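forwarding from the other thread:

> can someone predict this with phosphoric acid mono(formamide)ester?

sure thing
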Amino acid sequence: MNSELKHLLGIKGLGKEQVLALLDSADQFVDVNKRAVKKVPALRGKTIVNMFFEASTRTRMSFELAGKRLSADVINFGASSSSTSKGESLIDTALTIQSMSPDVVVMRHPASGACKLVADHLPETSVVNAGDGLHEHPTQALLDALCIRRKLGTLENLSVSFVGDALRSRVVRSNIYLLKLFGCRVRLVAPPTLAVTEFEGMGAEVFPDMKRGIEGADVVVSLRMKHEYQKDIYIPSLEEYSRLYCITEDRLRDYAPDCMVLAPGPIIRGTEIASDVADGPRSHIEEQVELGVAVRMAVLFLLATGADNKGRDSSSESGIKELVANEQ
Ligand code: CP
C-alpha cells in the first residue's frame, strides 16, 4: 500500500489514479454483491470496528455489510451504548479500542477533524472517515463517482450541479475535490446564505437561481437541509426555500433534460426533491445505496490488506479478481 493512504480521511490529497484504483476495485465488488452467495474470504481474520457518534442509516449499514461480506469480524460501537456516555474522552476511547488490535476503524463524528485526531493516536490501525462534521465524507463522494461513471461511462469533463444546503455539506466538499481531479464543472445552487464562497476557492461556481445553476447539467445532486447543525437560521422560510429550490420534474425538463439525479440521502420529499423526481427514471438514488456497499468493500479491502492502491496496478487488480472469484 502507498504509505500516504494508510487512512482514508478525505478525498483531498488523493490523486486521480488512486481514485480510479478504488473505483475499479469497487466495480469488481459490485459483481460479488449480485451473486447468490454475497461473500468472499478476502478479510478473514481481520477486525473492523465501526464507531458511529452521529446518526446514520446508509453509511453505517453499508460499512457493516461490507465488512461482513469480506468475512471480517465486525464490531459496531454507538456513542450512547459506550462509556463515552460516562465521560470517557475520544482519545481514551480510541486507545481502548487500539488495545483490542483492530485492523480498521470506521468512524463518524459530529466534529470536523475528529477522524484525524483518532488516526493520529492509532499508529497501528487504519482509520476511515465515515463523515466528520462539516469536513469530508469521502466514501460518499466515491460512491457518487462510481454511480456517475457506471451510468455515463466517464467522469471526465462533466457538468455536475449540487442544489441545496452546501454550507453544511461535507458531501459537497469531498465531491468537489474528486470531480475537480477529472476536470468537471461544479456548480452549487443555493440561497446566498447557504452557498459558501470557500467553495469558489475550490473551483466551484455558486448560483442563487436554479436556471443558471443547473442549465445543461449532466448530473444534478439534491442536498438535504441540515437542520441538525443549527435550525433554520440561514433561511427565513422553509416553504419559500422549497418554492425556489426544490428539484422538480418541470425544472429538470426545462433546464437539464438529459441529466441523471443523485441524492446522498436521507431525502426529504417535497422540500429538496419532488417525489416524481426521486422515484422517476432520472433518479439513481437506490443505485447509490447499492454501490455504497461495493465502494466500502473496496476501501476496507485495500486498507486492511495493504494492497497497492497508489495507482492502477495490474498485480493488485488481478489479486482482487482472484479473491472475489473465491466464494466463501
Ligand atoms: N449519505 C449518508 O451519509 O447517509 P446516512 O447519514 O444515512 O449514513
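The domain at 138-287 is CATH 3.40.50.1370 (Rossmann fold). thats all i got for now
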